[in-house]
Amino acid sequence: MSTNTETLGQHHLAAAHAGVEAIMQEPNEVATKPISDGTVAALRAGMHGQIILPEDSAYDTARSVWNAMIDKRPGAIARCTGAADVMHVVRIAREEGLTVSVRGGGHHIAGNALCDGGLTIDLSGMRTVYIDPQTRRAHVSPGATLADVDHEAQAFGLATPLGINSTTGIAGLTLGGGFGWLTRRFGLTIDNLVAADVVTANGRRLRAAEDEHADLFWALRGGGGNFGVVTRFEFALHPVGPEVLCGLVVYPFDQAPQVLAKYNELIPEMPDELSVWAVLRKAPPLPFLPPSIHGREVVIFAIVYSLDSEDGMRAIEPVRRFGEPVGEHLGRTPYSVWQQAFDPLLTPGARNYWKSHNFTGLSDAVITTITDYAGRLPSDQCEIFVGQLGGAASRIAPDATAYPHRDATLVMNVHARWDHPTDDEDCITWARAFFEAAKPEATGGAYSNFMTADERERTSAAYGINYDRLAAIKRRYDPDNFFRINWNIQPASDGGVAGAG
After folding, report:
1. Domains along the sequence of the chain with CATH
2. Is the pTM of this model over 0.90?
3. Among 161, 325, 331, 367, which is most buried by a count of CB atoms within 10 Å?
């Protein structure tokens, strides 16, 4: 690394140290009205589900989420069993002026599922998935995980684009956009959303689709949890599997600049059915890798070719020739198994801090930055991954859905992950410094599902050109900003649009 690069890197590291101790503050949470015994009684009187209070033995388990850095203490947790419970809880909470958060899978990095002192509407028990193979539709409850959807859909050889960690909740993934291995072929998760049942801030349930409350339907597709509680998602399904050609090609770290440059050159030539992600991390002890490489920095290309075709090996062959691999594992695997392949690296209970950027390609400067920071990972669990978009997802207009970032062909996530609070500062500082170093080459857009709690200033970047329209729809369905524990969109005022909150 040149002296100039070293100096710049030291500058970013020094700047990133500032404010680490305040990293998980929640600016959207205002003073919360205590939840009285009478309110608890009213909630319980109209529910089939449970109300869990801080003194209950189930409380600590109920308030735990995927990211161990989140340590919020709701005043009560309403564990709903269906839409009727949700409608009842929303009405009571609104009448009582309670702060409310909504939990689906509890997987979001920022911990928006919970609120300190307020009422958490917990949907995690609502996990029903019904597949109609004739119409190729999936009807999914909001507490379902990606594994729940894949399990049911793959029984009929069907799938819809989802994420890459099977324990992720379907609700948060979808409302933020959603992308994964099938996105280049079939679009984002929201591009496959056909309809949704939504409990709005007045406690009514509405159906949102192209032909019914079309403005709300538009807003749900990338506008996050700003507009209500979705109690049912309906997705279009596509024939996929039951097996796909997939696997890993692993290169030694000293080849990183070369193989990343060749990856960037290949991207425009890839067919939609091929998806290739790059991951830079310390090598896990995978059986197809030589022991000498275990625990050392490597570049991993994760590959999926989703067509049932003999063209697959020919399509992925260039990835095998980026350099001289230290190992590879490729072959046909059940799609649902591949969807869980990275779960061991993303188990709940670790401390996590993410920073992300969108790119239209990997310039030489970005490759240099990636290689520099991947060469000094602050923990064995930290990684940098570059997820591939483009294809079908980029052929949709940026104002066709609330998610606007159709120009992004790559999403880079700087994933800091560690186990002990004593490592907080080192890991967070590394991630923030990398983010700043890579910023000049990024598009300026943000993916809300990858945003941490200290990134409220990026809310407008997440919604981009669609913010004003979203603010107008927010005013129509939630004029008092009842649903505000999220990447919040302020309702438009009479005279125009309020600023990002």
Report:
1. 34-122 (3.30.43.10), 243-452 (3.40.462.20)
2. yes
3. 161
